[in-house]
# Entry
Amino acid sequence: MRFLKFSLNETLPTAIKLASMVKESNFSPDIIVAISRGGLILGRLLSDLLNVSDLRTIRIRRYKGVGETEELRIDIPVLGRLDGKNVLIVDDVADMGDTLQAAIEHVKQQGAKEVKSLTIHYKPWSKVTPDFFIQKTESWVVYWWEYAETARSLYTKLSGETDKEMLLRKLEKEAGVPKKVIRWLGLE
# Structure
């Protein structure tokens, strides 16, 4: 398992680069829709950089059905109609792409005129290729805003495969989760 660490110090330069890509494309968003939770921080930064005061959110989750099949559902839709508006949808990563695809379809159903999507990272197997992205990667991306989520997930996934000391070293050294987060979660 390979990890790609995305630090706090990379956030603003990355947001500026993405905002520049949007401007250079001549796409002028009226509304930014941030996919909760991964797109919230980036969405706010882009709202500021692109001078788009209308920032909205959408929350899309996976639910397991009776047969244990995961179903994607929009449990908090975008508020208000988007008739005739240019909409930029923002998330941190396009992994499987189904979340981004669901957001795009939802925004179009709400009447958006033109819809573009933007992520920091893009996985080659994603169903959707974002209109704007910084890097294509096959690695597990570890964002600074989700250290605890990453630590919990990896701890659960790997706890049966390796001893605790090795697991904690993997969390801290390979995935880049700060020791104070690991300690706060009580994983030590």
In short: The mean pLDDT is 94. Strands lie at 3-6, 31-36, 54-64, 70-76, 86-94, 114-122, 135-136, 140-143. Residues 80 and 120 are 27 Å apart (CA to CA). The chain is about 35% helix and 30% strand.
